[in-house]
Hints:
Chain A is α+β, with helices and mostly antiparallel strands. Chain A contains 5 helices and 4 strands.
Amino acid sequence: MKSLEELMALRDAAKLNMTTRDGSTEATRIVVGMATCGIAAGARPVMNKFVEEITKRNIQHVTVAQTGCIGMCQYEPIAEVMVPGKEKVTYIQLTEEKVAKIIVDHIVNGNPVAEYTIGAIKE
Amino acid sequence: MYRSHVLVCGGTGCTSSNSQKIIETMEAELKAKGLENEVQVIRTGCFGLCALGPIMIVYPEGCFYSEVKVEDVPEIVEEHLLKGRMVKRLLYTETVTPTEIKGLNDTNFYKTQNRVALKNCGVINPEDINEYIAYDGYQALAKCLTELTPEQVIQIVKDSGLRGRGGGGFPTGLKWSFTAANKADQKYVVCNADEGDPGAFMDRSVLEGDPHCIIEAMAICGYATGATEGYVYVRAEYPIAVARLQIAINQAKELGLLGKNIFNSGFDFDLHIKLGAGAFVCGEETALMTSIEGNRGEPRPRPPYPAVKGLFGKPTTENNVETFANIPAIIRKGADWFASMGTEKSKGTKVFALGGKIKNTGLVEVPMGTTLRDVIYEIGGGIPGGKAFKAAQTGGPSGGCIPASLMDTPIDYDNLTAIGCMMGSGGLIVMDEDNCMVDIAKFFLDFTVDESCGKCTPCRIGTKRLLEMLDKITEGKATLEDLDKLEELCHYIKENSLCGLGQTAPNPVLATLKFFREEYVAHVVDKKCPAGVCKKLLSFSIEADKCKGCTLCARKCPVGAISGAVKQAHSIDTSKCIKCGVCIDSCKFGAIIKK
């Protein structure tokens, strides 16, 4: 270890994995429905895709959690994205491709992908 | 990134209740379900709430499973980790409300605590330096080496008001400045991890849960005082702590955080572990250094103080584990931050090991000045079985007891000294109405008699004579004159012993005499033990009108001292009775009394 910069670089790399544990209210939460209905509809690869993308892009302060049945089984796989201070966004009938777009547009750039949300179907 | 982290306590307490097996089962189950790349299992240090161990916390939900058994693991994996449904029956009851699951920090046990020394315990994986670095580890060392002069470092520690957490309460910054002022070709830093007080385990927990903070602090101390070598003196009875510390030292060396030219500053620092064989006297600083040198652990007269002539005859700074554990945070956050906590003369926080008659046995860290009442009733959850609080022993065999009448005293170094106790390392043993205070004094004295190294006469012979007098009292053979003699001998030993062991050994006797003299008098004059503990003063009998003649006690009695016909009142032959109390526990009618 030769400089403070070197230490800080090591810290930032190590910090990513610790986001899951910090429980801070400032973290964005992605919650994937993981009841039988969700799993049957393919929620597991969807959730793994979220984790994979976050790791690949080194996005800080995002956690991925599971929940039970959200109650709209016909729309599974469902995921809810909760950005602190913003209204909750519910995405439905997710696929791995859709997840990649949500990560880029919503999580990174802050623009929810309206066409994948529950609102798009109801209209 | 893992989407979920499962933290399992790997402290000594939870390990002894099988947490290692839980971790292994969990890893196997995760593999079977194909979750091993999604869920990370981490063995941490102590969470503090040892009474509820083995403890498991699952993130990101932060839900708190207590008293987990190996059999529960498949259910946790299947339900929680695979399907996202918490296993409600295993959640710590206090965290479950009808509408939501509360986090750990909202429970009564944790919410009033303020964790500085224990900040990372139960939070990080102690065997992974990256997790320590992720939580700002080694930044304090970097700051010292690249931005501050040794004098500035010492000034910050002085300004923080940090005092030695091993018991004495000597100002840490001042201690460092003494060593720094002495010129020598070699100086040393020593960390005292020879935690010997019965009931104290905070040093062990820090080493087990956050070993890197001790390494970082010792390197900072080395830089400030001009030392390039350090020793951690830790007892061999702490195998988990020793193993983790060794792993941590190796990792720090690999990253160049120990060794030559750290942070390109020209500062070298190397660290060794020295195992102690577990003698209580080796917690005394001069005896500890004698032991590191390879000699029999015996104290030597001071002066010269270690800052002048310490380890191997060189200037040495010796601090306790908990003292060191505060250093990195003080450097990072500043002296003012630290000094804002605590009381006027005792700054910061103090870790207490709660034990004895208390619901939440475990480790707590509270700001100095917190009252005993808050620690015992708010955090500790009170006394089990609705019994009345009688006293709490602080400072182990070197300290004294705080009676119920002084429960609202803010705990800090000076207040405890003023009432004749001492902070000690922070063991807090709670006693209820069923404890006999003479017996407690005898217990601690029995310990010091065993642990006296024998070098000086007042301690070697004096403590033995004290113990004999206490034996006399508990056997009902003492007179009031003996009580005066007892007190006189206590003062003699205090004034004439060579080291801290002897100087403090009579404290448990003096404190109990001061606050519970009437109990001593009851033993001496009435030949009675009010708490019903001292066997020689007890006799068991059966109340004929309550006895139904069920014969249960007669069958349970191990020495056949109870006789009587079926459905008729029984009686106890007191010459045969060994006063074991089995009959009282077995009687369903409360017919057996002891007095």
